[in-house]
Structures are given as structure tokens and as C-alpha cells.
Amino acid sequence: MPEEVIATSNLAHLVFNTDYSYTDDGFRIYFEDSCPDPGVPINGSRTGDSFAVGSAVSFDCNEGYSLMGQETLTCMSGDVIDWNFDPPSCEDSAHECVATEGRFLYEEEGEILSPRDLETGRYPTNVDCSWVVEALPGKVVVVEFLEFDIDYESRCRFDFLQLQDMSYLNFYQTFCGRSLPPVYVSMAPVLVIRFHSDADISGTGFKIHYHLQDQSEDDLQGYQRIHQLFGDTGTFSSMNYPHYPYRNHVYQQWNITVDTHKTVKLKFVDFDLNYDQGCHSDYVQAKDPYVEGSFYWCGSCAHNNTVTSTKHILYVFFVTDFVMRKVGFLARYEAVDRSSGTGWEVVGTERFLWISVGRVGVWAVFNHSTVMYRVGTYGNDETAGLRWQAVHIDVVHNALFNLEKLPISSDWYHEIDWIHSGKTSVWVIGSYPDFMYGETIALKGFSPETPDKGIWTTVGAANMKEVSVNSRTGQLWAVEFDGKIWRSPFYCEISAKYDWESIEGCFTSVSVGPAGVWAVGYSGDVYHRAGTLLNETSPGEEWVHVPGVTLQQLAVGDGIVWGVDVNNRVLANVLPTPNNKDGKVCQVGLTGRSMCYATQKEKRLCAEDEIICPHSGHCIPECSVCDGIVDCGDDDDTDERNCWYAACPEKNRRMCTGDAGCYSPSRVCDGEWNCGEDKEDERDCPDSCIYINERQNFLRRDLIQCRDLKGCVKITKVCDGKRDCSDGSDEIRCGGNFT
To answer: Which fold does the domain 345-574 belong to in CATH?
Structure first.
């Protein structure tokens, strides 16, 4: 019998032909519409032998192999009779895409391929695959990339391949693009390989060869990754320091162990890493194994900070990504005696991200979303209060630059990153999740009985991480996202000012209050600014370390300092009362005798934060002194006399005409009369140096306009003894002769 004949289309032409010789019985043909034989996959099997239209066949793979394609095919009719899908194949299970805990591979060596669409030759979209290569103890995994084509993005956030040592869960190596990644040697017997693709562009994928080797062999990384440090003191540094920048995809770990009766004190001598908010890219991590949480550092400010372990062991990690490289760091450690007694106590059981204390009470932030007020603390910052009350942020009014008559309202969709309790307002910084710099708003016009009935208003200082307001004088201190410290010479809790001066030091949190200026370092250490206790309008002299506690944020009150530690516990420290507290002179801007004859506190002729005018008898706020506006009235201008004693001897300050007040060049054309009716600081406006619609974008104002309107000069050039304006207007009426 002839073999079965299968046509290649839906048309078959049969021809029967005979000659003039013999004859026979002939033939009988059976025919039907059918599909071509789909075959049997190698390392697999097929169920079903009928290929007729409407028939179906199914496929399976042998153990150790996975089916690539459709499990069932159906024969379909049409212009061409064919199967609805291409026949599948059976591939090694190492190719399989597993979205849960991963496919475990125990072979001494093998290959791992990304999943691939047979028609396009590219990996599919929206997949998550994982493979776990596990070796015996004493062995490690060596990974070599043979092919690599994964959709590129600068931080590999869309499609990526990721390697993770299971014993070092905080270390990931992430790759994308077309360049072959370097050979990687794991630090532990178990290595997890993860592959992710999004819903967009895809590449041809990857091909990896892996094998196992003894852990003691050369790891091919070119630098030592795990270090064991012993002894009472020592130094260590990041790879390549200080001669070359550190490499991408670096992991280093130092396990520091000292005498069991001592603790480890770590200090950075030099520090220069790539900075990003939250320190997710390149960072140094210090982990105390006996407490929860860790300290993280990045940027260039960590060299001013120290961290001390609770016991005799401290782990230090250095991790980099694949984007930017810098010099690295040098660190020193020493064994120190354990300290006892801190003076701090835990208040309540609540857990908050931030806390602040001021004249308007104690305020905190819960879970990045809710503002909390401590009932009973309004006007009394020496009490712990009664309970917490939620205050929600709904609508925010924008009234920048004297636009109170034309406010713009908008909904608040930010995450709350910081809070501060000031003199008459509560300040909040919030940010969108995808933006580094937040927006600053203030709650005004509320009472202790109805803290949720105030008005939220947009204010300046949008490029600062924190802004701290002295609850008595309105003095402003601030810290940038990269840790730099700034101080404004202005008072009265003015919402938007642009003339800030830099203070040495790098910190994560700063607070100013009647108890002075305090700050928290990158390692959680607490510092006090010497020279600011009961003299909070002073820039201070130096930072002094205050031992006994580690915090992530603090807030200064009158004789009390509040704080939040790494476990989000609230702590408070009541400070010793100075002998001269009741008799101190609280004249703003003066470090010596009051030139305005402020009343002594024991007479209490005015409120605690007010002074009495000697001729008119009026009580005026302390922060109104030397603000450029005569407040005493009734022919009494003593609150604006002799102000050069307070501020004008400093560089970059000017005296108003008639010696009645001082003002900073940055207050020129800010819409306020800082020289009273003379209006000297508001002449020749508008300011041509900074476009008025852009002023709210900058906390620090760098340029002022010359009086002849022929140019602009930097603020740092004002009253420096050199003429920078063609008319010399940058050097007129300076508070002193500077060379």
C-alpha cells in the first residue's frame, strides 16, 4: 500500500492513467481535511494521532525539561488547513521562568537562559523569573555572562537581571543594557538570580554559565570583601582609597570586635560618596547586632560624625551601585569604656517619625501622613502634656510675597517628611514621592482648644530638609538635604527670607530654642552649639558632643530637649536650670546690655516675650526690636535706636538713613518697609537681578541690584571694602570699615 499523502494546501489534484496492456481490480482512496504532522518534541511526548480538521493533540515533556509553547494544538480550516499554534519544544528546566521562590539548581555547572518568545526571539514582557544556585558548604558560585541584551535605563528600574548573595541580603547587583557584566563570585554557597521585565520594550535576553569552586580560591573581584578587625584601635578604608575612585558593584564588610567589657567607637576621617536622598545608591552602613536598625551615610558630610556600639561588636558595610563613583572613605575605630546613665526617659508608647516642641506646643508626625498635637502643651513647653490629637492637612493656601489678598488654594497630596513647632505657627515640609525637595507650609491662626481649625499656608525654604524656628525670638536655623547647616539673622518667624549664612558642620537634624541650638549627626550622636544656651540669637562658637543617647531627630524647648530614636521611641531630657534664668536679658540681637532699656523680667510689666518702651510705656514683642519698623509709637523710637550694636557691625548689613534700624541687602524689594517710613530698602524696584516669579524657588538670594540700575553684585561683595557697583552703592553706609 502506498504511504499516506498529506497535501500542503486545501487543494489536491488526482490523475488516474492506464496504458494498452494489462488491467487489474483498481484502487479505492479515502481522503479527509487534515493538518500536517506536528511531530513529537525531543525529550517529550505527544498524545493524539488524528490530524483532521477539528482534532486536537497535546504535548508533555520528560522530567527535567519544561514545555516551551502551547500544550494543546487544534487543527483549523481556512484558506490553509493548519494548527492554531506552532508545535512546542522541550527545553532544559534551567530556562524555566519561576515567579515564586525560584528554581533550585544543584549541578556543579550549567547554563541559565532568559525566557524567549519563539516568534520574536526576544524575552516576553511582564515576567518575573528566579533561579537559586545552591552549593555545598565551603563552595561558592562563579557566574560568567555569555550573552546579554536587556532594555537599558540609567538605574535599571524597568527590565533588569539581579544577583543576590543569600547570606548578604542587603547587597544586590543589578544589570541592564547590552554590555557584558563582569564575572561575579558569590560570597556564600547560595546565589539567587532574578530577572524582571515590564510591559514595554524587550531585548533578546541573556545567557549565563555558572560553576562551583572552593570558597578559598581567588574570587576574581580584585579586592578583599570580608575583613575581620580586632584590637583596641585600627583604621580601614574603601577599595582604591585614596588613589582612585571606588568601582561599581562593590561590597565590602568589616566585622569589628574589641574587648567584651568595652564598646566600639567609629569615626570617619574622610568621606566622599555619591549622594542620593535616603542613601540607596552608594552608602556606608553601621550595624550594631544587639539593637534594631542601622545607621546609613552617603554624600560628603559623614566625616563629622561618630557612632558607638552598645556592646563589643560593630559591623560596617560599604555598598555601591553602577552609576557614579567617588573617592570613598577612611575610617578609624577604637575601644572605649561603656557609659552608664543618660538622663533621657521614654514618654508614652506611641511611635512617631518626627517630633517638635515650641510656643504652640508639642507636635509630631505619624506614618508620613498625619500631624499630631500633644494636648496641654500649648504655651507650656516644659510639660509632657495629656494625650495626642490628630490634625489633618486638607487645603493649603498660597500667599507668598504679600499676596494675602489674592490667595491660591490647592489640595495637599504630599507625604509629610518633617514638622516644627514655632512661636505662633506649626511648620511642615512635605514632598511628592518622586521628588527630592519638599514644599514647606505653616499652620497659622489656631488656638489650643481648636488646633485643627487653623489655616495651612505655603511658605518659602523649599530646598531645605528642616527649618527650625526659635519659639521665643523667631530665630531660624536650617539643614539641607546633604547635611549643611544654615542660619538666618532674621527673627519674628518670618515665613520667606533669602539671606542665610553657613555654619560649619554636617548633620541630619537641627533645632533652636531657649535651651540653645542642638543637632543630630549622621550616626545619631547629639551635639550642642556652645555659646547658644540662653543666647539663641547667637551663631555660637563650636559643636560639643552630648553623650548618652543616639537619636534620629530632636526638638529644643525651654529647659527640655525632646527626641525620637531609631526605634521611633519618644525621649525627653530635662536640663539643669541656670542660676540666672529668671534675671536674664532677652533683648533680640544683643549679647550685652539692652540698648532699648527692656524691662527686667521680675517686674512682669509685659508678657514674657515682650519688652516695655521707656517713653511711651507700650509693650512690644521682643522680636520687633531692630526690625526696621518703629513699634513703640508716641514719639518713642527707642526700639529702632543704636541697632548697629545688634547687627550692623556684621558684614553685609546696612543701616537705614537716620540710624533708625538695620537691614540686609537681601531684603531689598521684598515688599516690606525695613526702614520705616523712609522706605529706603524698597526704592528702585522691581529687582532686575532675580525674576520675581522665581524668587520663591530659592532660599538663599545671591544677587542685589546696584543703585544706578547698571548691574548686580553678589551679596558676599556687599560691605567688603571693595567697590563692585559702578556707583559704589554696594559700599555705602556699611556698619564698619572692612578691608
So the answer is: Neuraminidase (2.120.10)
